[in-house]
Amino acid sequence: MFGGDTFDGLISCIQDLNRSISENRTLLHDELPALFKFPDEDCTGIQTKSFSRKDNVKVQIKVVFLTIGDINTAKQCFDCEVFLRAKWREPALKYIRPARVKKIDWTQMWEPRLEVVNVNGTIANEKYWYDVDPKERDPIVTLRWKFTGNFFENMELQEFPVDSQTLSICIESQRETNELYLVKDQRELSNVTYCSFEDAQEWDLCKHVDASTIVRYGFLGDTSKAVSQFVVSCTVMRKWSYYVWNVCLVLVVLATLSICHFSLPTTIEGHLVRVIDSLMLLLTTITFKFVTASNLPTISYLTLLDVYILENVVFQSVMYAVYATLSRTRDYDATIARYYDFIALGVTAGIQFIFNICFGILFAVKLNKTKKDISVKDRDYRKLREFMKPDVPELGLTEAY
User: Fold this and answer.
1) Does residue 394 have a pLDDT over 80?
2) Which of 51, 224, 353, 397 has the fewest CB atoms below 10 angstroms from its CB?
3) CA distances from 229 to 171, 215, 375 (A)
């Protein structure tokens, strides 16, 4: 049907097309930029080179509190094992073959250069690994990072011991905001593992986890440069019953013993016993104050428990002054001396009783407010989690990494 020349020309065109396809494939495979190397063995290092990108990369972060260890109020720190997952799009991997994913030399790739800001010392037991999903239009690179450490936390103790504390992990990128911005994961929430909470005897671990991004200016001492920080925090609520039974109840007993000295006779020996015993109770209360303060950091304000202890110190001081003053009535008639005793007993006992009632009401109000605030945050977190993952049951455990 075709002439010989026409058939030969068609064959020549097909051969040229095949040759062109082979050359382009070789160029794509062998002449990619130096960012891509395919070594014989998988790379395990994370010491990536400081490549930069012109586009503003959005890095999505998810953090899981795997294990929360000792929470030290006095030193304002806590031990924790953390899992972090960071995801970002990498257009340079657009033509990567799925079979080549495991052979990517990650030391030659762009990465967000993340570091933990609020760690005391250095992190330990550090493990990390990379993965990439080549099925996306712009492949998504995933960095998984697991580490443990001791982390600093500035604790607010005004309402101690009915306080709640946030335990935060602050992640910062060493790249400026014009190149990179850290955001929370848009598909999965950061969360906490309840079953591995080690300090459950002193704290209750709440279910919600907060995450936010802030911009810090002054990077490398230059106020015009800014980097983004990703702060994720869980909340713990202190178990207050220990301090009620071991501090407040003991102080009530000491105050009661001080008042009971009014039962002693108004003789010289009776007044002497009153003064000596009230002085001993005063010193005991002061010692109690210093022992309690040793469990707290050096702060410039009074906690709720400090107010109660200091009131008892003042009360014991007043009782000492009252007994010293009443000792001057030993020269009076016994009836008049007992009359002054009854007046002093009524005033001091009444003041102490009213203070304890008022403090108990304040204690209950503060406790109820703390529980209500936490309950609202837990409910909002649960609703958001159900909205993002409607098929995941509430098991009290962390989701899969």
Assistant:
1) no
2) 224
3) 6, 6, 27
